[in-house]
Amino acid sequence: xxxxxxxxxxxxxxxxxxxxxxxxxxxxxxxxxxxxxxxxxxxxxxxxxxxxxxxxxxxxxxxxxxxxxxxxxxxxxxxxxxxxxxxxxxxxxxxxxxxxxxxxxxxxxxxxxxxxxxxxxxxxxxxxxxxxxxxxxxxxxxxxxxxxxxxxxxxxxxxxxxxxxxxxxxxxxxxxxxxxxxxxxxxxxxxxxxxxxxxxxxxxxxxxxxxxxxxxxxxxxxxxxxxxxxxxxxxxxxxxxxxxxxxxxxxxxxxxxxxxxxxxxxxxxxxxxxxxxxxxxxxxxxxxxxxxxxxxxxxxxxxxxxxxxxxxxxxxxxxxxxxxxxxxxxxxxxxxxxxxxxxxxxxxxxxxxxxxxxxxxxxxxxxxxxxxxxxxxxxxxxxxxxxxxxxxxxxxxxxxxx
Length: 402
Fold this sequence. Notes:
Elements: H1 6-23, H2 25-45, E1 50-57, H3 64-69, H4 76-86, H5 91-99, H6 102-112, H7 114-118, H8 123-132, E2 134-138, E3 144-150, H9 153-173, H10 178-211, H11 218-244, H12 253-274, H13 294-328, E4 334-337, H14 350-380, H15 382-401
Antiparallel strand pairs: 1-3, 1-4, 2-3
Helix pairs in contact: 2-14, 4-10, 4-11, 6-8, 6-9, 10-13, 11-12, 11-13
C-alpha cells in the first residue's frame, strides 16, 4: 500500500506550521513590536541629514568656429582638422569627472572646514566622507544633477552651489572645449614662431652690420616672398596632416587630399628654390657654416625672416579667431536650478528603517518559533534526545580536551 502523495502532504505541513506559530502567537507580535520600538528610538537619536540639489547644463559643442575659420582660406582647414581631433565626444561625462576630482573636493573641504565637521584627521578620509554624501548624475539630455547631503538645510544648499562654483573655476584654468583647445594649441605655435622670427631678424641684422648692406633687386625680393609664403603654407599643411593622423586612416579621402596637396606644394617649392621656375638660384650651404657673403647671403637670411613673418601672421590670425570663439562659448556652465535649502530631512529614513526592522524581526521570530517547537519534539522523543545528548557531549568533550 503506497503512502500519501506529495500534494496531500503539503496541506498537512501547512496546517502543522500554522499550529506551531499559533502556539507562539504572543512571541510573534511582541518581538517585532519591541524591535520597532528600538528602531524608532535609534532613528530619533541619529543625526539628521538634508539633501540639496542643483542642476546644470554643461556647454555643448558649437559649430560657430566653421564660419570664422572660413575667413582664413587654406589655413582654416587646419583648425577644422584640429577641432575634429580635439573635439569632446561626451561633455557631460567630462564634467562629471571634473566634479569628482580631488581639486574640487579639496576646495570644498577647505571652504566648509569639513575635516572638523566630519571629525576626520586626514584629507583623504575627508574626501571619502564627502564623496559618500555627494552624488553626480547625468540624464539622456546631458543635464547634470548635483546632490549634496549636509547637517542643516543651509549648509547643504551652500555646498551644492559651491560644487558649481568650483567647477567654474576649474574650467577657467583647463582647456576643455574645442575653441579652448585650439586657443592653447595656437598660443604655443604663435610663441614658437615669434621666437624663431626674432632669431632670424637678429641674424639678418648681424649679417648687415658685419658685411655691410647689399642691395636686393625687386625680382629677388618677389622670389623671396613667394618662396617664404609657400614654405609657410607647407608648414601649415604639415601641421594639419600631423593632426589628421591621430584620427584618420591612410585611406581617408581628406587625408589623401591633404597629402597630395602637400606633395604638389613641395614640388613647386623645389622648383622655385632651384631656379627652374623663375626663382633665385643659391649656392649650397653646410649646416653650421657662416652665411654666404654678398647678395646671396642676404637673400637667404631675408627669406628666413619673410618665412617666419608669414607663419607669425597665420598663427596670429588663428589665435585671435580661437580666442573669439572661446569667448562666445562663455558662460561655460549654465545653472538650470540653483540649490535651495531643503524643507524636509533626507536621513535617517525613519519609515524605511522601522519597516525593515519589523520584517527582519518577524522572520527571526518565525524561525525561533519553529526551532523551539523542534526542540520540544526532540525532548519528548527518547531516541532523538539520546542522540542529541551524544552529539552535545562529543562537542563539549572536544572543546574541553583543547
